[in-house]
Amino acid sequence: MSVKVEKVTTQDLQLGMYVSQLDRPWIETPFPMQGFHIRSQDDIEKLRVWCKHVYIDLRLGVGPVTAPPVTFAPSSKPKAVAEVRGNVGKFTPIRYTTTAPLKKEVATAAPYHREVTRAVVHLFNQVREGQPLNFTIARKASRAVVASILRNPDAMVWLARLKDKDSYSYNHSIRSAILAAVFGRHLGLPTDVLENLVTGVLVMDIGNARLPRKLLATNEQELDAADRRAVREHVQHSLDILEKCDGINDQILGVVQYHHERHDGSGYPHGLQGTQIPLLARIAGIVDTYDAISSPRLWAEARNATETVSVLYAERDQAFQGSLVEQFIQSIGVYPTGTIVEMSNQEVGVVIAQNPSRRLRPQVMVVLGADKQPLPQPRVTDLLNVQQDETGQPLMVASCIKADMYNLDLSRIQVNAA
């Protein structure tokens, strides 16, 4: 089998690449001489310290920028259920463009984000109180999310990060729906399909409102078999509630029914595999897992952005379709909007926007100087355009950090990017 080697700058390295050669002798570096897979952000940062470019083996790892094409078509042989509902079918991907500056869209989207939050809280309360679900408000909220994401995919993500300290259940649904919209936009899903996806993600866990709070406050791995079955019944509870609603459709119900199915067949409730799982449900499963890992829960601290990406990446072609995972990471970036980062010059800031052509070089609002003291006035550094610091050294994101490390409050940071 022939070796396919490509030269890549260290600024464009991605998880999963196989480094076969450096731009200097191996013996001059701390890396293994036989080559290695990039498995963590630390690997990338070390390579940047020692090298300007490397050579990657495309036969042994992923290539630059583009991921393998995502399979949209469903399998013709679904198992465990007579018919899998909610398949999207063939479509021509739409190339969306950003039409609103970030600062303007944050101001526009803020009242809509509050509306979405009120809608989700109201829906969960209706279920707890045994009332019929007002599905119309879910559809209205979803349209607001999609409209904003299409104008600018960073604004809603930023606003969602400001709510991290509120109820996990409500905001997990909202954050996951926003991530789904960003991902669906990246994939070029038609607007009506995007709205169905976001609606499905908003309400896919509505059945949890019928479960005892004690079960929801416990890690599923620590539950006994009976309680674990009870928790997994939330899928059927959600379906029972939603199938009575006017305006529901199979794409939305497919998200709800299959979002816990997994690529390798290890999921529930039907044990579907691969593309037997509808595309929208595959997307929902990824964003659901990503937000759960990256958010604080009663039994687990939130993982930072690079740790979360690494966990998700490790599940390629196991829990999740590999090419879809890679596309998701491309859609949100290695440092998603709202991530607190320390720069290579020791300054601290928050990612406020992505650069689609160079996901490792986002726009960062710097709020703390190298001495970790607040700047008189925060400043925006676009790493796509600013390659060096004031001393002439390469400028890049060095690491992700927790907001509480320096008592940063995202809600007090005003986005002033163009």
Overview of the molecule:
This protein is 39% helix and 11% strand. The protein is α+β, with helices and mostly antiparallel strands and 418 residues long. It has 3 domains: 5-57, no CATH class; 102-332, Hypothetical protein af1432 (Orthogonal Bundle), CATH 1.10.3210.10; 340-412. The strands form 2 sheets. Strands 8-7-6-5-9 form a 5-stranded antiparallel β-sheet. A 4-stranded antiparallel β-sheet has the order 1-4-2-3, with no helix packed on it. Strand 7 and strand 8 (374-382) form a beta hairpin. Helix 3 (135-151) crosses helix 6 and helix 5 packs across helix 13 (322-332). The radius of gyration is 22 Å and the shape is globular.
Task: Spell out the key features of this protein.
418 residues; Hypothetical protein af1432; four-stranded antiparallel beta sheet; 39% helix; 11% strand
Indicate the topology.
Elements: E1 5-9, E2 18-22, E3 36-37, H1 41-50, E4 53-57, H2 102-128, H3 135-151, H4 155-161, H5 168-187, H6 191-203, H7 213-216, H8 225-232, H9 234-242, H10 250-258, H11 279-294, H12 305-314, H13 322-332, E5 340-343, E6 348-353, E7 363-368, E8 374-382, E9 397-400
Antiparallel strand pairs: 1-4, 2-3, 2-4, 5-6, 5-9, 6-7, 7-8
Helix pairs in contact: 2-3, 2-4, 2-5, 3-5, 3-6, 4-5, 5-6, 5-11, 5-13, 6-10, 9-10, 10-11, 11-12
